[in-house]
Design brief:
The complex is a heterodimer of chains A (307) and B (273).
Chain A lengths: L1 H28 L4 H6 L5 H11 L5 H13 L13 H36 L4 H15 L2 H15 L15 H26 L3 H8 L4 H39 L4 H10 L3 H29 L1 H6 L1
Helix pairs in contact in A: 1-12, 5-6, 5-8, 5-10, 6-8, 7-8, 7-10, 8-10, 9-10, 10-11, 10-12, 11-12
Chain B lengths: L1 H8 L1 H18 L1 H4 L31 H37 L1 H15 L4 H11 L3 H27 L3 H8 L4 H37 L11 H8 L8 H28 L4
Classes of the chains: A mainly alpha (307), B mainly alpha (273).
Chain lengths: 307, 273
C-alpha cells in the first residue's frame, strides 16, 4: 500500500505543477494589455504603472513565475483588484458554502439513486425498471442551468415553498442541492442497477436465497453491500465534478461559494481573483480524486496490485 | 434495409435518430422554416406570451422566441460538429503518436493530458473564455482544448491493446511501417469506440456551449444561442417563464436524442468506454 501511495503522490506532481503553471499563464495569455483591461482604457498612466508593478508584470516572465511559486507556497495569491482584500482569505471564506452545497448534492444523489437503482435491478424488465432508466436518461441529458430555473419556477414562484436564492434560510440549500445533484443521481441509478445485477447471480446470493432469507434482505444485506464498491468510488469521483458544476449552480441561486465568486470576478475582470478561484477548484479536484483513488486501493487490494 | 429494421426494433434509437434528423433538418433550413426574422425587434410587444402568431412568445425586445430557437439550433450544431471534428482529429493524432511511438513522446503527451484533466469539466473552458473573451472562435478553441484529451486517451488505450494482437504482429512481419500500422490496422480497429466517444462528446459539447452562453461567456447576443437565451430569460422567470421553458426544452431534447443514439451505437458496436 505504501508503494502504491508513493507512486500516486509522485504522479500528482506533474499535474499540480501543470495546473499552477497554466493558472500563472492566464494573465499573460490575455489578448492586449491585461492592466488596461482590468483598469479600463481611461486609467491614468501612473495608475497603470502602479498596478503593473504591484502584479509584478514589469519583471521578466521567469522572475514572475518564480515569485508566483514562492508566494503560492506561503499561501499568498495576491490581492483582489475589486476589493483590495487578499485573494486567499476571500476564497477561504467562500469554501465552506461550496463544500456544504457539494456534499448536500452528493447526499441527495445518494438518497435518490441507490434505492432507485436497487429497485430497478430487483424488478428488472418491469415498469419500475423502465421508469428508473427513463429518469436516468432524462437526468443525464438535463442541463443544470435549465433544471435550476425550472425548480425555482415550480417550488419558489408557483408553490412558494422554498426560497428563490441566497443562503439565509435553512431551506435555501434544497433547490441548489437538487439542481447540482440531479445529474450525478441520474448517472448513479444506472451504475447501481448494473452493479446490483452483476452480483445478483453470484453464488453467495443463491446461498442466501437457499437459506430462505426474504428478498429484501437478499438485496439490501447481501447484494447491495457487495455492489457498493464501484458505486461509492464513482460517487467520490463525482464530488470533484460537482465542484465545477457548482460554478453554474451557485450563479443561478446566488449561493455565496467559490464558483459564484469566480463568475463575479470574471465579470469585473478581477484576474488575480479569477486565478485564485481556478487554482483552488482545480487543486481541490486533484486532491479529491487522489483521496478517492487511495481509499479505493485501501478497500480493494486488487487495485494496488494492478498498478 | 437491415439498418432500418434495426432502428425500428429499438424505440430508443428510433426516437434518437428522429430527434437528431429533425433538429438537423430544421437547423439546415432555418432561414426558410423560421416564421419570423430572429433579430427583428418589436419593443412594444416585449415579453409577449405565446400566441397564434408567436407560438413560443416574444423576448424582452419583442423578438420571436420560436424563430430564435430555430436559428439557435444552427449554433448548437455548428459548434458541436466543429469542436468534435477538431478535437477528435487532434486527439486521435496525439493518441496515435503516444500509442505507436511510445518512449518520451508518449510520456510528454501523457503528462499534458494529465494537466488538462486536472481541471474539472467546464472549469478549463470557463478559464479560457475568461482570458480570451467571448466569441465563436474563442469558444471553439476553449472547447477543443478541453475535448481532445478523451479522444487521445481512448486512441492510445486502443492502440496499446491492439499492439498485442496477432494481426498486428503479422503486419509488422510483412514489413508494415509505423504509419501504415496506424492508418491501416490501429485506427480502423479503434473506429467503433471512437465513434461512440464522438457521439457522447457531441452531447457534452452542445451542453457546454449552452452552459458558457448561460454564464455570458459563450456566443454573445444578439446571436440566438440557446444558452444565452436562457440567460436572458432568467430575470423574467416570474413574468415570462416561456423565455426559460422553450430554449431549455429544446436543449434537453437535442441532448437526449444524441445520447440515445450514442447508447444504441455503444450496444450495437459492443463497445465498452
Amino acid at each position: 500500500m505504501r508503494r502504491f501511495l508513493i507512486k500516486r503522490v509522485a504522479g500528482l506532481f506533474p499535474s499540480v505543477l501543470g495546473v499552477v503553471t497554466l493558472v500563472f499563464l492566464m494573465v499573460h495569455l490575455i489578448p492586449g494589455d491585461p492592466v488596461e483591461i482590468m483598469l479600463g482604457e481611461t486609467a491614468m498612466a501612473a495608475q497603470k504603472q502602479a498596478m503593473r508593478s504591484e502584479l509584478g508584470l514589469d519583471k521578466p516572465i521567469a522572475e514572475q513565475y518564480a515569485s508566483y511559486l514562492s508566494n503560492l507556497l506561503r499561501g499568498d495569491l495576491g490581492k483582489s483588484i475589486k476589493t483590495g482584500e487578499p485573494v486567499f482569505a476571500e476564497i477561504a471564506s467562500r469554501w465552506p458554502a461550496t463544500m456544504e452545497l457539494a456534499l448536500f448534492a452528493l447526499l441527495v444523489s445518494w438518497a435518490v439513486s441507490i434505492p432507485l437503482g436497487v429497485l430497478a435491478a430487483a424488478r428488472r424488465g418491469t415498469l419500475v425498471d423502465k421508469g428508473s432508466l427513463f429518469f436516468s436518461m432524462l437526468g443525464v441529458a438535463m442541463p443544470n442551468f435549465w433544471l435550476g430555473p425550472l425548480l425555482i419556477l415550480v417550488f419558489s414562484i408557483w408553490l412558494g415553498w422554498l426560497p428563490v436564492s441566497g443562503k439565509d434560510e435553512a431551506l435555501s440549500i434544497i433547490l441548489p442541492g437538487i439542481t447540482l445533484g440531479a445529474g450525478v443521481a441520474a448517472l448513479m441509478v444506472r451504475l447501481t442497477r448494473s452493479s446490483v445485477l452483476e452480483v445478483i447471480s453470484e453464488e453467495y446470493i443463491k446461498t442466501a436465497r437457499a437459506r430462505g432469507l426474504p428478498e429484501w434482505q437478499v438485496y439490501l444485506k447481501h447484494a447491495l453491500s457487495n455492489a457498493m464498491l464501484p458505486v461509492v468510488t464513482v460517487m467520490g469521483l463525482q464530488l470533484g465534478a460537482l465542484l465545477s458544476g457548482a460554478v453554474i449552480t451557485e450563479t443561478i441561486f446566488s449561493w455565496p461559494g467559490v464558483g459564484r465568486l469566480m463568475i463575479d470576478a470574471i465579470e469585473s475582470r478581477d484576474y488575480p481573483m479569477v486565478q485564485g478561484c481556478v487554482l483552488n477548484i482545480a487543486l481541490c479536484y486533484v486532491a479529491v480524486n487522489f483521496f478517492v483513488d487511495a481509499a479505493y486501493a485501501m478497500i480493494d487490494p486488487r487495485i494496488r496490485l494492478e498498478r | 434495409m437491415k439498418t432500418a429494421r434495426y432502428i425500428f426494433l429499438r424505440p430508443g434509437l428510433a426516437i434518437g435518430v428522429f430527434i437528431l434528423a429533425f433538429t438537423g433538418l430544421v437547423a439546415l433550413l432555418a432561414p426558410w422554416v423560421a416564421p419570423h426574422d430572429p433579430f427583428e425587434q418589436e419593443l412594444l410587444f416585449g415579453l409577449g406570451t405565446p400566441s397564434a402568431g408567436h407560438i413560443m412568445g416574444r423576448d424582452l425586445l419583442g423578438r420571436d422566441v420560436f424563430s430564435r430557437i430555430i436559428h439557435g439550433s444552427r449554433i448548437s450544431f455548428s459548434v458541436g460538429f466543429i469542436v468534435i471534428g477538431i478535437s477528435a482529429s487532434f486527439g486521435i493524432f496525439a493518441g496515435s503518436v503516444a500509442g505507436s511511438i511510445g518512449g518520451r513522446a508518449e510520456m510528454l503527451l501523457m503528462r499534458i493530458m494529465d494537466m488538462a484533466q486536472a481541471f474539472p469539466g467546464l472549469l478549463l473552458a470557463i478559464s479560457i473564455m475568461a482570458v480570451l473573451g467571448p466569441g465563436f472562435g474563442n469558444l471553439t478553441l476553449a472547447l477543443c482544448l478541453t475535448g481532445w484529451v478523451n479522444f487521445a486517451r481512448l486512441t492510445r488505450g486502443q492502440i496499446l491493446s491492439l499492439r498485442e494482437r496477432e494481426f498486428v504482429t503479422a503486419a509488422i512481419a510483412s514489413g508494415a511501417d509505423r504509419t501504415r500500422l496506424v492508418f491501416f490496422h490501429y485506427l480502423p480497429n479503434a473506429a467503433a469506440p471512437l465513434l461512440v466517444e464522438a457521439t457522447f462528446g457531441l452531447a457534452s459539447v452542445i451542453v457546454a456551449e449552452a452552459g458558457l452562453g448561460f454564464l455570458g461567456l459563450g456566443i454573445q447576443p444578439p446571436a440566438p444561442s440557446w444558452g444565452s437565451m436562457l440567460n436572458e430569460g432568467r430575470p423574467f422567470l416570474l413574468i415570462a417563464p416561456h423565455l426559460t421553458l422553450f430554449p431549455g426544452l429544446c436543449l434537453l431534447l437535442l441532448v437526449l436524442g444524441v445520447n440515445l443514439v450514442g447508447d444504441a451505437l455503444r450496444d450495437m458496436l459492443d463497445v465498452k468506454i
